[in-house]
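Chain A, query sequence.
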Amino acid sequence: MLFHTLANAPRPVAPFSHATEAEGWVFLTGQMPTDPADPDAPLPEGIEPQTKRVLDNLDMVLAALELDLSHVLQCRCYLAEFERDYKGFNRVYAQSFPSDRRPARTTIGVTALALGALVEIDMIARRPERAPVAAPSRSR
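Chain A, predicted structure.
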């Protein structure tokens, strides 16, 4: 098992790893809409800018692990204002994945999120299986 705490990823808001990994499965901790370059800056205002920032932060974690959004198989999304923000959240989220390769997803309304965020997303990704390398042939 691997526990990834990444220097160039968003600063954790609690005691956790950015991702953990076992047997090719990569579990990304939910990201907040914080600015990695200025973690103490105010959060973006509104669900759409916050959703974009969260997805960018997740993409940053994936990139540090030599993965990208095409490796994501499942997302869990948490909205602090579900009824109000669901449509706006979906507008931004849909732009991150091709319509024929969208991960499985659950979206949950919650009473509150860390830092007063409107959205948090966690992900499960899978590393591509590598084809076995054939032994070099020997000439006689």
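The two ends are 43 Å apart (CA to CA). The chain is about 20% helix and 25% strand.
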